[in-house]
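Researcher: Re-running this chain for the archive, since the previous output was lost when a drive failed. Same request as before.
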Amino acid sequence: IVEEIIVNDMPDNECGPGTILENNICILDQRCGPGTILQGNACVLDSTLVKSSSTGYTKELIMSVTTALGIAGVIGIVLAIIARVNKNKN
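Model: Regenerated structure tokens:
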């Protein structure tokens, strides 16, 4: 009687960085990253113009600075009133 051992945990063929597995052989990865295209044997920047969408935080910046200055002004007025009251008591 021949006993066969079935091994299910054998690792698949894996390729190193910059290579992909094709037909059970590791070959150079010919794909390029985002914003680049393959020209010849090199990835170069894509020359098509991409319109950037600015989110425009100007309004939020103005509102936050105005609010901060307003709060600082109110605190300054309250402290000035407290100082005047203490001055009049003495």
